[in-house]
Write a structure and sequence with these properties.
By secondary structure, the chain is α/β, with parallel strands linked by helices. The strands form four sheets. An eight-stranded mixed beta sheet has the order 5-8-2-1-11-13-14-12, with helices on both faces. Strands 3-4 form a two-stranded antiparallel sheet. Helix 2 crosses helix 4, helix 6 packs parallel to helix 8 and helix 7 packs antiparallel against helix 8. It starts with a helix and ends with a strand.
Length: 286
C-alpha cells in the first residue's frame, strides 16, 4: 500500500511539473551560485544533477558563480590581507592573481567536472573569453575591482545554441589585457539582460525575502517590482538582501520575466521552484 501511495505521489509531482516544462522549454535560465552554498560538496553535486536535468528537459541553463570565501581562504594561506571599502573587496595585483586562480582555475573547473559527470555538456568561461564582459575600474581605491561596462553575448549564444552549458566566473577584462574582479550579483544581472534570459535565479544561503528577518517561516513567496521598490524605500531590507532586490528590479526593468531568490542549501530547490505551483523561495515579477 505504501509503495502504491509513493507511486501516486510521484505521478502527481510529474503531472504538476509538465505545464512548467512546456512553458520554459527552449528558454534561457540564468542561475547565480555563491555564498556558503558553494563550499558544500553535496550542494554542488546536487546542483550539477539538477542543471543537467534542466538541459535534458529542453531548458538552456547558464551558471554564473563567485567564490568570496574560497578567495579569502587562499589569501590567508599566502599571508595576504583582505581589504574592503564600502563592502567591496579591494583588489590589488597579488589579490587579482588569487581571484583568477581560485575562480577560473579551481571553483569553475570543479563545477564543470561535476556537470559533465552528471551528463551535461559544460564549458568554463570568464568574462574575458570572447570579450563576453568588458569592465572598468570602480575607482582607484578599489584597484582592480571593476563594474560591468558592456556585454557581448555572441559567444554565449553560440554555446547555448549548440546545447552547451556555460559556467562563467565573475572575472572581466577591459580589452587591453587588464583583468577585473567583479561582484557576481551585478555580473550575473548584466549577462542575463544581454542574453535575454527568461529567469534570473540567485541561489543564496537565506530562505528568500522574509517579512520578519528573525522568523524563517515569514517567507514572502511572491511580490511585484512595485512592492520591491516600496520595500527598499523603507529600512526593513538590510545587508545582502538590498543588492539582491536592486538587482531584481534592474533585471525585470530590462526584460527578464522574473527574479528568484532561493535557499541553495535546500536540496533540489531549483526544480521545486521552477516546476511546482508553490515554489520554495521568493519570486519577484513585473
Amino acid at each position: 500500500m505504501t509503495a502504491q501511495i509513493s507511486e501516486e505521489l510521484r505521478a502527481l509531482v510529474i503531472s504538476e511539473a509538465l505545464p512548467y516544462i512546456r512553458q520554459f522549454h527552449g528558454e534561457v535560465i540564468l542561475i547565480k551560485f555563491g555564498g556558503s552554498c558553494l563550499k558544500l560538496p553535496e550542494l554542488r553535486s546536487s546542483l550539477a544533477h539538477d542543471l543537467a536535468l534542466l538541459s535534458y528537459l529542453g531548458l538552456k541553463p547558464i551558471l554564473v558563480h563567485g567564490g568570496g570565501a574560497e578567495i579569502d581562504e587562499h589569501l590567508g594561506k599566502l599571508g595576504l590581507v583582505r581589504r574592503f571599502v564600502d563592502g567591496l573587496r579591494v583588489t590589488d595585483e597579488p589579490t587579482m592573481e588569487i581571484v583568477e586562480m581560485v575562480l577560473a582555475g579551481k571553483v569553475q573547473k570543479e563545477l564543470v567536472s561535476l556537470l559533465n559527470a552528471a551528463g551535461a555538456k559544460a564549458v568554463g568561461l570568464t568574462g574575458k573569453d570572447g570579450r563576453l564582459v568588458d569592465c572598468v575600474s570602480l575607482g582607484e581605491q578599489w584597484g582592480m575591482t571593476g563594474r560591468v561596462e558592456a556585454v557581448d553575448p555572441t559567444l554565449l549564444q553560440t554555446l547555448v545554441a549548440a546545447q552547451f552549458l556555460p559556467v562563467i566566473s565573475s572575472v572581466g577584462g577591459d580589452g587591453a589585457g587588464q583583468s577585473f574582479n567583479v561582484n557576481a550579483d551585478p555580473f550575473a544581472t548584466a549577462i542575463a539582460l544581454a542574453i535575454k534570459a527568461k529567469k534570473l535565479i540567485a541561489l543564496t544561503d537565506t530562505p528568500g525575502l522574509l517579512a520578519d528577518p528573525s522568523d524563517p517561516s515569514s517567507l514572502i513567496s511572491r511580490l511585484s517590482v512595485r512592492e520591491a521598490r516600496e520595500a527598499l524605500a523603507g529600512d526593513s531590507i538590510r545587508g545582502g538582501m538590498r543588492p539582491k532586490l536592486e538587482g531584481a528590479i534592474e533585471a525585470i526593468d530590462g526584460g527578464v520575466n522574473a527574479f528568484h531568490i532561493l535557499d541553495g542549501r535546500v536540496p533540489h530547490c531549483l526544480l521545486l521552484e521552477l516546476f511546482t505551483e508553490r515554489g520554495v523561495g521568493t519570486m519577484i515579477e513585473a
